[in-house]
Amino acid sequence: MTVRLRRIVVGPLATNCWVLHADGDRRALVVDPGDEPDRVRAAVAGLDVVAVVLTHAHWDHVLGAGAVGAPVLAHADDGPVWPHELATLDRLGHWDAGTATADLRAAGHPLRPEGPLWDGRVDDHLVDGQVLTVGPLAVDVLHTPGHTPGGVSLHVEGHVLTGDTLFPGGPGLTGWPLSDFSTIMGSVRRLAALPAVTAVHPGHGPSTTIGAERPHLDDWEDRGW
Ligand SMILES: [Zn+2]
Ligand SMILES: [Zn+2]
Q1: CATH number assigned to the domain comprising residue 177
Q2: Ligand 2 centre and the CA of 24: distance in Å?
């Protein structure tokens, strides 16, 4: 079964929103519709979106979640994350973009929501080991906490969508109050046990493979980020 993966880069943090379906089948998942809902909707025109999956509930992954018109799925352990994001917006007047915040604001990104905020509604909770059926595809849900408590990765047919858990060159950032470095390294080690040829598609930037990243895990552990 050939997997079709389409990437739509959305929002000020260039978040990768993924549309996933089997070749020749209309049933699709939308993963991390983080912003620009019009572009996300245009990308799924002609497809039947069976669900929206949030790899985690950081603002840059969720803002378009309610606009796709499909049930929203996320891990229950990320329940505190979206309220924390809203509290940050309330307190600072803009989103927290981690280490990129100052540079983005200096470059003129207000880091404030332009459209309506996501209402935070999650229709169903994902659990580790769950299999999502997307037409003929079986998509495995892996709970990969650390960047956030309820981070998930999706594994399907030689591809893994890792959200902000695993990138080329290291794990996602763990500077947020709800993040934990040793937890994310446990998740990264679990992902690294996938076959070496597995394509890794993160929540921002280019893709990589498990085989390209696996040799570096001990270095990441040693450097501490
Ligand atoms: Zn994140
Ligand atoms: Zn992100």
Answers
A1: 3.60.15.10
A2: 30
